């Protein structure tokens, strides 16, 4: 039927439905744009720093380690003044935390909240780049008695940030355990535990209003351990899957190739059930233990290496999730150090990438995904002597390496390239690296009874080329940090986000005007 012969009421009905369709499309686009605006210009992998460690290095040494490892984002479980001072002028972005035992005071007193912000934020910002404040940690599930104070504490701290004119620069949220989400798979059926609705509803309102993220601690390791026989290990470790092993949400038909994406989408669906679609998910903890007791046979170095390496690559590849392929959640890896002072089980003390002396627990395999962690490419590691080892102990280790260890020690003989400087430390470093490379950089091959350490700094000097260097091409020496874009890159990324939003709105407006123009052309005939 021609439009000119339609009744005016029908035309206006068509106009209304067209406007409704366009508004729905625009709302979806705007919600995604709002989520993107909450995030850094690029997704990143940060790292948690727990301090239940024997002989913890000084704050200055720790920050030097972070810089050497190319770490750009960290999360502290407190607001340690020594760390905040040491981080000044480093451009490392830090989440500071309000410990659970301070919630009562801050949630009950605006003056206490203002004092906390003055002491722990204003005193250091902007020389120290504080990106967010985590208020408590898994409060709903670990200290439920403090739950009624959680949102008041957050709002009081926010008011203090407003007073300091920092509320647009520093976000405030609170990390949650994954257990606050019930029925997490399939993700489309997930929902927040309704017993916490009185907290989650106002919290999500706050996060939406302030553009702050929903912080979630998500551990596929625990999902696997609690669902052995149901959740395959491969899905938990980001390993490549055959289509038959992919998890499929029967309600959406979305395919999930890994557990972490499913957990992130479960959080998005849970928020959607509360009618919030503009809050981003920030994964404040995720990792895999490298050692466990007899009840934790999957806490191994190989599995920890596989999970963390694949997780880092997944984030830096900007893969998104099946529900939101256009949004990649940033992740804070748990954690920097093995916290040997933690209580049992054994795994609790073995989540770290490094021992307290900065020796790697294992080496990540994420070559080609940028330079987050300078020890991430096994093509660039060497074995050298640790500082402070006495000459007698070193000589014994050197004799073993060049003898029973069958290291190639020809280059440290008189007249050869690595003979100078002629001292036991220099010769032992070369011999250690020769043995380490010969053994394929295997775990335990750089120890020598505790006198050796792995480094990513090439120890070659002058004409003395260490064995590991001979396997490195000029191309693999090139360092390109993709985790922290330059101002120029960040600017261009922001422009592209804006352009995509404008483009979407232009198309919607064009369609709307076309409909209006078509109707207006025919209205005179209808009226007449």
Automatic annotation (TrEMBL):
It is an enzyme of class 3 (hydrolase). GO terms for cellular component: plasma membrane; side of membrane. GO terms for biological process: carbohydrate metabolic process; defense response. It catalyses: Hydrolysis of (1->3)-beta-D-glucosidic linkages in (1->3)-beta-D-glucans. Its EC number is 3.2.1.39. InterPro entries: GH (IPR017853), Glyco_hydro_17 (IPR000490), Glyco_hydro_17_plant (IPR044965), X8 (IPR012946). It is a lipid-anchor; GPI-anchor. The keyword Membrane applies. Pfam families: Glyco_hydro_17, X8. Keywords: Disulfide bond, Glycoprotein, Glycosidase, GPI-anchor, Hydrolase, Lipoprotein, Membrane, Plant defense, Signal. GO terms for molecular function: glucan endo-1,3-beta-D-glucosidase activity. It is found in: Cell membrane. Its main location: membrane. It comes from the Eukaryota. Belongs to the glycosyl hydrolase 17 family. This is glucan endo-1,3-beta-D-glucosidase. It comes from Populus trichocarpa (Western balsam poplar).
């Amino acid at each position: 039927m021609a439009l000119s012969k339609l009744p005016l009421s029908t035309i206006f009905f068509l106009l209304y439905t067209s406007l409704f369709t366009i508004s729905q499309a625009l709302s979806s686009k705007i919600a995604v744009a709002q989520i993107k605006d909450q995030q850094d210009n690029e997704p990143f992998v940060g790292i948690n720093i727990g301090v239940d460690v024997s002989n913890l290095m000084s704050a200055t040494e720790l920050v030097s380690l972070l810089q050497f490892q190319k770490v750009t984002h960290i999360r502290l479980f407190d607001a340690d003044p020594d760390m905040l001072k040491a981080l000044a002028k480093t451009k490392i972005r830090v989440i500071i935390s309000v410990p659970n035992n301070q919630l009562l005071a801050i949630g009950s007193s605006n003056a206490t909240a203002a004092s906390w912000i003055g002491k722990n934020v204003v005193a250091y910002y902007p020389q120290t780049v504080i990106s967010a404040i985590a208020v408590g940690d898994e409060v709903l599930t670990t200290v439920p008695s403090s739950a009624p104070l959680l949102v008041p504490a957050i709002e009081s701290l926010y008011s203090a940030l407003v007073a300091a004119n920092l509320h647009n620069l520093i976000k405030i949220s609170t990390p949650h355990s994954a257990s606050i989400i019930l029925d997490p798979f399939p993700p489309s059926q997930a929902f927040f535990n309704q017993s916490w609705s009185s907290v989650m509803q106002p919290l999500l309102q706050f996060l939406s209003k302030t553009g702050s993220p929903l912080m979630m601690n998500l551990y596929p390791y625990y999902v696997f351990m609690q669902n052995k026989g149901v959740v395959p290990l491969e899905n938990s470790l980001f390993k490549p899957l055959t289509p038959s092993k992919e998890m499929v949400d029967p309600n959406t038909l979305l395919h999930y190739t890994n557990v972490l994406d499913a957990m992130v989408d479960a959080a998005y669906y849970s928020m959607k059930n509360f009618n919030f679609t503009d809050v981003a998910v920030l994964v404040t903890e995720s990792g895999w233990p490298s050692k466990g007791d007899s009840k934790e046979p999957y806490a191994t170095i190989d599995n920890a290496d596989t999970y963390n390496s694949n997780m880092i690559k997944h984030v830096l590849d900007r893969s998104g999730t099946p529900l939101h392929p256009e949004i990649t959640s940033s992740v804070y890896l748990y954690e920097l150090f093995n916290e040997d002072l933690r209580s049992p089980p054994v795994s609790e003390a073995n989540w770290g990438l490094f021992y307290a002396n900065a020796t790697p627990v294992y080496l990540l395999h994420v070559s080609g995904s940028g330079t987050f962690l300078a020890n991430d490419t096994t093509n660039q590691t060497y074995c050298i002597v640790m500082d402070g080892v006495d000459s007698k102990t070193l000589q014994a280790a050197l004799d073993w390496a060049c003898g029973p260890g069958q290291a190639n020690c020809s280059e440290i003989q008189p007249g050869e390239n690595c003979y100078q400087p002629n001292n036991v430390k220099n010769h032992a470093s070369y011999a250690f690296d020769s043995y380490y490379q010969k053994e394929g950089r295997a775990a335990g091959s750089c120890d020598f009874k505790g006198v050796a350490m792995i480094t990513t700094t090439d120890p070659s000097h002058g004409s003395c080329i260490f064995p590991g260097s001979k396997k490195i091409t000029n191309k693999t020496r090139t360092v390109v940090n993709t985790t922290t874009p330059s101002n120029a890159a960040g600017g261009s990324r922001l422009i592209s986000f804006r352009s995509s939003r404008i483009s979407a709105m232009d198309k919607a407006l064009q369609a709307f005007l076309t409909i209006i123009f078509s109707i207006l052309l025919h209205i005179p005939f209808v009226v007449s």
